[in-house]
């Protein structure tokens, strides 16, 4: 968007900043502005997301004459979470950090984060009423609010509107026909396949990708009204819902209308090139589709189980206060102000595919005019986050374990029943090794 300043965060710059993280994390240095203080803000947002965050932070920074927000960008996944935990445990924590909501259960109970003061937040126009119910509920651990969601990013269905129109599939509002069963889904795929003359009509890139497999599974499983229990001594799950969800995934990629062996990039490229008409993927892919000037529509993943339950896998980038044993109260107050300004200025974040969590932004005419973003924004109201535990969540070994087992069922190397049993055994091992809090 034109209002973003030309402030590109290069990979080299990100690495340079990461190398300085240990020094900067504990600093509350005076900024270049007279009398101002520097707020250290750690996050793992690079590439396009990093550029957008840089622009939003830059605007918030300009509105705060008494402070400077210093971003520290670290490598995504385990490296980031390990360094964040070490900084909090070692007394050198930054003033602000980003944590995926799905990782909150591994950080808040162990004293690695400080809770947000709700009265303090309210003075800046931030409260429970400004977030969706799932985002607020999942930010609470042991009765305290430890996270403020920046967004909701979900698994969705993208479709090529030109192909859909040529196939006569769109209604007067430009939407696809309602999909209520796997038979409906396969008919849709067959229509796209017939129109393009290609081998497949639908796309789901899953090969070698535990994250992709988990996201679609958790969507289907949650649509059954089922959940996982990872807090006791033994893995608790709904065996029937688990089996039916995996079987549905297997039917989706049975080689008729979707490939049995597509990885993430293969499926995405096929969609970009107009070789398939519908793609299951994360909403973070929206910018590259728009950059390619694709004729694009999007919708929530349909419920094909007849349960009537709206549900989708999702996660949120959230703002947290890494634990400081003796926080500088003036800097902490500035951290509250900075987060409130970033939340209120998160429209550009929504333009990138993520649905902003701050509801005044979502309810604004500017966001509602964004298409297809506003067509799937409703998913934020029924997002199902990963089951909470110290070992689950974004980029975790839990997802890797899931992918390694369930992929075998999808490609026919094992039965669905055996795959479910195998995964249950692995989760029991993870639970036995987890730190009991």
From TrEMBL:
Q: Which positions make up the signal peptide?
A: none
Q: Which UniProt keywords apply?
A: Sugar transport, Transport
Q: Which residues form a coiled coil?
A: none
Q: Which InterPro entries match?
A: Bact_solute-bd_prot1, SBP
Under Gene3D superfamilies, the record lists: Periplasmic binding protein-like II (3.40.190.10)
| The protein's name in its UniProt record | Multiple sugar transport system substrate-binding protein
